[in-house]
Amino acid sequence: MGTQKGKKTVLNFDSEEDVSKALAKYTADLSEKFIKEKGSFTVVLSGGSLIDTMRKLVEPPYKESVDWSKWWIFWVDERVVPLGHDDSNYKLAYDGFLSKVSIPSSNIYAINDKETPEGAAADYEARLKQLVESKILPLSAVSGFPKFDLMLLGMGPDGHVASLFPTRPHRHEKERLVTFITDSPKPPPPRITFTFPVINSASEIAMVVTGAELAYMVDVALGSAPPPDGIPPPCTEVSAEEELTWFLDKDAASKLQTSG
């Protein structure tokens, strides 16, 4: 296992609206870059407020200029509920983003919602391995895990990312690509989630964090605040092979001593 880490950039914006504009340009620029380099763009989504913050991407000029036909969509974590359920990250993404652009449905990798959490995780992992075999997903030369082009992540006030929570053992999983959790401290309890080896093998990661309720955890991850209980939360473990970019609004960055 290699330990090579990419660079980290912290971008501070006056408002969530400014974060949304910057995130759209960042994503569209990466889409163009990866499609030019390799003919596809593999994007991993999360839940929470992220999809709303991606709203500028489905407006002009990006709605028309991005080559949506070359996008492949995945989820870093998902609640094991029917895809049409209000708790589903797929439904959140479909309503706010996927229904507004022309990504081929065959390129959208929702979970199998008929499975148990364990079965859904195993199924998702098997489908990722098939994409590796068919050369859609390359393997990281550093880690040997599948390498996505872009992961769009958020975090919780407790510092969780994906469904990797501070007090659950899944954050330490090193072998599997996808694992499952049946006792998430946040409802709904059954979920599947990518593991850190997959998350940290991504070429680019955007950590999109807005709102004052996240300011303390931003300071833990990027500043000088000591971690709660002395244990670094999962958000401190995120790294990307090329670049990890934090997108912060003024409220989320309010406890940081310096502006980046």
From TrEMBL:
EC number: 3.1.1.31
Superkingdom of origin: Eukaryota
Catalyzed chemical reaction(s): 6-phospho-D-glucono-1,5-lactone + H2O = 6-phospho-D-gluconate + H(+)
Membrane keyword on record: no
InterPro entries (alphabetical): 6-phosphogluconolactonase_DevB, 6PGL, Glc/Gal-6P_isomerase, NagB/RpiA_transferase-like
Domain Glucosamine/galactosamine-6-phosphate isomerase: 15-246
Protein name: Probable 6-phosphogluconolactonase
MF term (GO), any: 6-phosphogluconolactonase activity
Leading EC class: hydrolase
Family: Belongs to the glucosamine/galactosamine-6-phosphate isomerase family. 6-phosphogluconolactonase subfamily.
Biological processes annotated in GO: carbohydrate metabolic process; pentose-phosphate shunt
